[in-house]
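A note on notation is needed here, since sequence and fold are reported together in a single record. The reader may check this reading against the record printed directly beneath this paragraph.
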Amino acid sequence: MNDMTDISEGQEEAVYRIGDLAEEFGVTLRTLRFYEDKGLLKPTRAGVTRLFTKRDRARLKLILLGKRVGFSLTEVKRMIDLYDPHGKNDAQLKVALSKGEAQMRVLEEQRASINTAIEELERTISVVRDMLKEAE
C-alpha cells in the first residue's frame, strides 16, 4: 500500500501515493487534488507523482472527520493550521473544543428536528393506513 522513500538527509519516512490514500479513505483522486488546491494537503512531487507523508495522511483523516461532523473546509483548515509540532497546541485545542461544542449543539438541534419529523411522518402513515383499511 505504501512505499518507503528517502526524504532529505537520509531519513526514511512512509510516503503514500495519491491512489493509496484515495483507496484507503474511500475518496476520489479529484477530491485529494481539490484538497491540495485548497492548501489542506501539501504533497511533494517526484516528477508528476504526488507523494504524501504521514503528516498529510493525518491531515486527510482530520479533514474527512471535520467534513463528516459538519465543519466547512475553511474551518477545518483553520483548525489544522493552528497545529505547532513543537508546541503544546493550546490554541489549536481551545479552538477545536469551542468549534466542536458549537457544532454539537447544531447537530443536536438537527437530530431533534429529524426526530420530530419522523414522529409526524409515522402518525401520518398510520392515519393513511387506517383510511385505506376503512376504504376496503
Notes: Residues 1-11 have pLDDT under 50 and may be disordered. The two ends are 62 Å apart (CA to CA). The CA atoms of residues 33 and 41 lie 9 Å apart. Strands lie at 3-7, 11-17, 44-46, 49-53.
